[in-house]
Amino acid sequence: MNRKLELSKPLYKQNLLYVDDLRNPPNKLRQEYNIIICRNYEEAIYELDKRRCRIIDLDHDLGEEKTGYDICKYIIENNIEITKIYIHTSNPVGRFNMYQLLHRYCKCDIIPY
Q: In DSSP terms, which residues pair with 74 in a beta bridge?
């Protein structure tokens, strides 16, 4: 029996922390990553401390006082190592502020969409 190992597919999926109070992750992300969904600031901080996810997909407006910007500040203040941050939000000012903060203080890929 000849079985060829498919080299194009990773052996495991990386964890992606998806933070949004309303939306679910797009199917493309679900296919590429093991998704951990958080609906608010507290859940996101808990998961960041527990799992140390290296890839995050952030919304700005989380339906409460704390926002995605606060999560960005937490990442920077606590030196959490992140390799990639996706920013998905309908709030253009929030997107800009999160991008500027991360661009200045975080050494990671920042992908607004």
A: none
User: Residue 37 above 70 pLDDT?
Assistant: yes
Domains in the chain and their CATH numbers?
15-112 (3.40.50.2300)
Spatial separation of the C-alpha atoms in residues 47 and 17, rounded to whole Å: 8
Task: Give one DSSP letter per residue of 28-74, joined into a string.
Answer: HHHHHSEEEEE-SHHHHHHHHHHH--SEEEE-S--SSSS-HHHHHHH
| Alpha-carbon gap, residue 50 to 48, rounded angstroms | 6
Which tens digit of pLDDT belongs to each residue from 54-109? 999 999 999 999 999 999 999 999 999 999 999 999 999 999 999 999 999 999 99
The answer to whether 110 touches 103, Cβ cutoff 8 Å, is: yes
